[in-house]
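Need a sequence for this fold. Nothing fancy.
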């Protein structure tokens, strides 16, 4: 029982309409389970899905029931569960060398770093490997502070950048906070959310789907962007010293619900941060590795080049791994001490991650993200226009958010589990419960998309009938 609960502490939701082909969606349902042992006290479900096996976009539970995985273990399984090419690469490396540390030289590490660097623009060519996203962001915080000599770091409200004691300060989402001293030198600023924020119009986003808000901005002139930048300036004027260390931002806010900012926001924000001595850090933990479809990295869609990029999740298709990529100049400032990390750059992790890069290219995963993602977005937008309770559809590629509302006038949040008869009798909460986050493995097909859309449509339709409207 212990390992079962640990295994399923993941935000997955069952849609048991079609018994032989149910679907997984995340709803971030969160439960405190009476502890079955002193070790494990929490999972997201009262009756967690007891997953047993995975293959590409599919998962099977212990009873042999198949699920279409639309969440990929939080955007982590990039090319597919147990992808044969990646599995073969791991097996090969397991038979050759499991472990040494990065103080020695071994081919997998160096081959991988060279390969990863070739995916990044100049001057982002120095790579530090880690074991997770939190570790990558921890390291980026340290490097930014050492390089700039400044301490203060700004992030967006609603963001998640990790759960370690340091990154908890970056994370600006109450659900993940603990009542202990944290976040010294970390300040959050308004997230430029063009759907739920005070400003937004019908041209703001870099997405096939815009909000339904009215907009009278002239082409190339976004009023919402100016207002949100005004909020950032307000933060500079009131909450941090003149000189800052860094600004952390995801190209699309992941845990916050696939929130997209106005086009050009990041460009202007980066300029303002650099004016104050800070470095700009793109957290690509969710948006990287082709998921946004148009580009390999989310930052490329904003027309910016960060000073540091942090990555994890999709980098290893589920194998524990992360990285910080930065400039030689910032790396030089970090060289004053000895940086050591036993497992970072583990030979098996490097072999897996190297194979993930090859697989993304050979399987055309980024192209799949674009094609299937655009299809999903445009079809979901039709459902939004049809149903009162679908407030917003947004995102790029296979990084999609569908925000549910009680009605389109009040925009009051409607929690996803109210419209989806999950196998869960009761729940506590973990925001943002109102947004379905759709981030499947990038091997999903158009047929899978149609299947999901049919189930989603039926669920919303049934809910509206039950509600009487
Ligand atoms: C954007 C983002 N950054 C960082 C992290 C932390 O990564 P990890 O859980 O690997 O520590 C997450 C995890 O969900 C994330 O979504």
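Here you go.
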């Amino acid at each position: 029982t212990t390992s079962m609960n640990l295994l399923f502490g993941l935000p997955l939701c069952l849609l048991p309409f079609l018994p032989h082909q149910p679907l997984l969606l995340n709803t971030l349902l969160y439960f405190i389970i009476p502890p079955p042992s002193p070790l494990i006290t929490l999972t997201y479900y009262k009756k967690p899905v007891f997953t047993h096996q995975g293959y590409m976009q599919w998962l099977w539970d212990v009873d042999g029931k198949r699920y279409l995985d639309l969440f990929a273990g939080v955007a982590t399984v990039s090319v597919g569960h147990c992808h044969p090419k990646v599995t073969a690469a791991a097996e090969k490396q397991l038979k050759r060398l499991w472990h040494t540390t990065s103080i020695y030289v071994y081919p997998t590490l160096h081959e991988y770093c060279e390969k990863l660097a070739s995916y990044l623009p100049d001057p982002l060519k120095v790579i530090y490997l880690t074991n997770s996203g939190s570790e990558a962001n921890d390291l980026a915080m340290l490097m930014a502070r050492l390089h700039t000599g400044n301490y203060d770091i700004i992030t967006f409200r609603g963001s998640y950048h990790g759960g370690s004691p340091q990154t908890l300060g970056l994370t600006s989402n109450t659900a993940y906070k603990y009542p202990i001293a944290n976040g010294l030198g970390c300040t959050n600023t308004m997230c430029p959310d063009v759907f739920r924020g005070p400003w937004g119009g019908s041209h703001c986003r870099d997405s096939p789907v815009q909000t339904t808000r009215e907009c009278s901005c002239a082409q190339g002139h976004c009023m919402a962007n100016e207002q949100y930048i005004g909020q950032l300036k307000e933060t500079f004027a009131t909450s941090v010293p003149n000189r800052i260390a860094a600004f952390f931002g995801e190209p699309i806010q992941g845990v916050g619900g696939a929130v997209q900012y106005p086009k050009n926001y990041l460009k202007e924000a980066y300029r303002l941060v650099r004016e104050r001595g800070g470095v700009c850090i793109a957290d690509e933990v969710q948006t990287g590795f082709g998921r946004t479809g148009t580009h390999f990295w989310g930052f490329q869609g904003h027309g910016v080049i960060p000073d540091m990029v942090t990555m994890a999740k999709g980098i290893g298709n589920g194998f524990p791994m992360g990285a910080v990529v930065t400039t030689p100049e910032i790396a030089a400032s970090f060289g004053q001490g000895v940086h050591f990390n036993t497992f970072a750059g583990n030979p098996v992790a490097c072999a897996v991650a190297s194979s993930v890069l090859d697989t993304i290219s050979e399987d055309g995963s980024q192209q799949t993200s674009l094609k299937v993602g655009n299809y999903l977005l445009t079809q979901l937008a039709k459902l939004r226009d049809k149903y009162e309770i679908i407030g917003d559809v947004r995102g790029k590629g296979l990084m999609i958010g569908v925000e549910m509302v009680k009605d389109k006038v009040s925009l009051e949040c409607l929690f996803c589990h109210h419209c989806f008869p999950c196998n869960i009798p009761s729940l506590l909460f973990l925001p943002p419960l109102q947004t379905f986050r759709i981030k499947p493995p990038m091997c999903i097909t158009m047929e899978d998309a149609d299947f999901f859309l049919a189930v989603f449509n039926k669920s919303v339709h049934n809910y509206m009938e039950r509600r009487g409207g």
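For context: The pocket of pyridoxal-5'-phosphate is lined by residues 74, 132-134, 137, 160-162, 250, 254-255, 283, 285-286, 312 (CB under 6 Å).
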